[in-house]
């Protein structure tokens, strides 16, 4: 009798947890003992390490990646009557944050190879921005682990006096031309959702900046707009604090983060070497690195390929099946006047394979063999 193959994890958090279980348990026990469950000393330690990783002076830990985006927009006074330029090919939080502060997202198309914001499309969106909206900010998304084209996008933003806020929810730990993600924009936000390359055991996020004034505003907004003490409120704020236990967990995960990034890169490169002749494998921006939040490729017969892979026990993911500009709550917001051709094409052809730093070669070979067979036999 042939043994049933072991299930394949799309993201293997269990193996990572076992690797650091003793250290995490000790860190959590320390929090339980000192009892500072909100804004405890681990928050300060985490913020220091995040700033070092990001190549900036300041990091602000907060409750989620979405909160990080909202805090960044609030810190710049962005709200009603303002336009925020975002890609449509992303998770909803990027556009959602703009709406939550009262601004209007304007949807920008993506580059066909990198799948990140297209500078030419951004320029068209700025030029055609409705007269009732004032262009205020650009929020590129670092999709699937790599930075967007901040050189080209930054030049356009600077030309028009727009704030650049990098949505690095998937790319923290990557770099562009030697500059770490964190220092590529005036403010950079990230997410510590468990599935992210650097994830906690719940929700969490951060904002990074070099600006001394901005970090003070961000700290105030994060804590109900607090002024000199907890009962003085200098501005409208939110409760956006990260809890101390999540910070303790993230400190232990940061200790192995560099090793995990190297493993992700090795696994991604091996996928590309083994699959480049059968599917359109991911392209990393020139001069950039990726932390491979997902390994996402393109094929003409995606749905048939996914069906065959799933039948063979290989899990897959689709990021993103329906772009934001085609979803009900966002359909009325402005978009590229030339259309969203690349975004609407990619929605039907992209899919992702299992990716995590603990994948062994035998498992990867099984995935590759199944994909090659699926592509060759699918109509």
Fold and architecture overview:
- It comes from Magnetospirillum gryphiswaldense (strain DSM 6361 / JCM 21280 / NBRC 15271 / MSR-1).
- By secondary structure, the chain is an alpha/beta fold.
- Helix content is 39%, strand content 13%.
- The chain contains 12 helices and 11 strands.
- It has a 7-stranded mixed β-sheet, sandwiched between helices. Strands 6-7 form a two-stranded antiparallel sheet. Strands 10-11 form a two-stranded antiparallel ribbon.
- α1 packs across α8 and α10 packs across α12.
- The longest helix has 22 residues.
- The protein is globular, with a radius of gyration of 21 Å.
- The model has no long low-confidence stretch (mean pLDDT 97).
Shape: globular
**Poorly predicted ranges (pLDDT <50, ≥5 residues)?**
none
State the major sheet.
Answer: 7 strands, mixed
Number-wise, the strands total 11
Cα end-to-end separation: 32 Å
Separate helix tally: 12
Strand content: 5-15%
**Integer-rounded radius of gyration:** 21 Å
CATH superfamily assignment of the largest domain?
Type I PLP-dependent aspartate aminotransferase-like (Major domain)
CATH C-level name of the largest domain: Alpha Beta
Please name the CATH topology of the largest domain: Aspartate Aminotransferase, domain 2
The structural domain count equals 2
Give the neighbour order of strands across the main sheet. 1-9-8-5-4-2-3
Protein name: Pleiotropic regulatory protein
Family: Belongs to the DegT/DnrJ/EryC1 family.
GO molecular function: pyridoxal phosphate binding; transaminase activity
Keywords: Pyridoxal phosphate
């Amino acid at each position: 009798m042939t043994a049933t193959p072991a299930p394949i994890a799309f993201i293997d958090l269990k193996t990572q947890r076992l690797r650091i279980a003793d250290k995490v348990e000790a860190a959590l026990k320390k929090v339980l003992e000192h009892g500072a469950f909100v804004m405890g000393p681990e928050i300060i330690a985490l913020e220091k390490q995040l700033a070092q990783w990001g190549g900036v002076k300041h990091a602000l830990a907060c409750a989620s990646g979405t909160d990080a985006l909202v805090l960044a927009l609030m810190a710049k006074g962005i709200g009603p009557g303002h336009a925020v330029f975002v890609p449509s090919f992303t998770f909803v939080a990027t556009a959602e944050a703009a709406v939550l502060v009262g601004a209007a997202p304007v949807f920008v198309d993506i580059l066909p190879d990198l799948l990140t914001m297209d500078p030419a499309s951004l320029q068209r969106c700025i030029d055609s921005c409705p007269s009732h909206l004032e262009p205020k900010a650009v929020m590129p998304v670092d999709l699937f682990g790599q930075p967007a084209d901040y050189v080209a996008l930054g030049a356009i933003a600077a030309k028009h006096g727009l704030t650049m806020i990098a949505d690095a929810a998937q790319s923290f730990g990557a770099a562009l031309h030697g500059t770490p993600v964190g220092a590529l924009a005036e403010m950079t936000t990230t997410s510590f959702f468990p599935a992210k390359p650097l994830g906690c055991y719940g929700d969490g996020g951060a904002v990074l900046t070099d600006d001394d004034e901005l970090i003070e505003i961000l700290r105030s907004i994060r804590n109900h707009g607090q002024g000199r003490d907890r009962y003085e409120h200098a501005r409208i704020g939110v409760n956006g604090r990260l809890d101390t236990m999540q910070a303790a967990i993230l400190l232990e995960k940061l200790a192995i983060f560099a090793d995990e990034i190297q493993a992700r890169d090795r696994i991604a490169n091996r996928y590309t070497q083994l699959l480049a002749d059968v599917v359109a494998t991911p392209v990393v921006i020139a001069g950039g690195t990726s932390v491979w939040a997902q390994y996402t490729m393109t094929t003409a017969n995606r749905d048939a390929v996914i069906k065959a892979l799933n039948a063979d026990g290989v899990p897959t993911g689709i990021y993103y099946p329906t772009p934001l500009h085609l979803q009900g709550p966002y359909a009325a917001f402005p978009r590229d006047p030339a259309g969203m051709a690349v975004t609407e094409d990619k929605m039907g052809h992209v899919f992702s394979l299992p990716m995590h730093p603990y994948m062994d070669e035998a498992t990867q070979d099984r995935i590759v063999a199944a994909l090659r067979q699926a592509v060759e036999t699918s109509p």
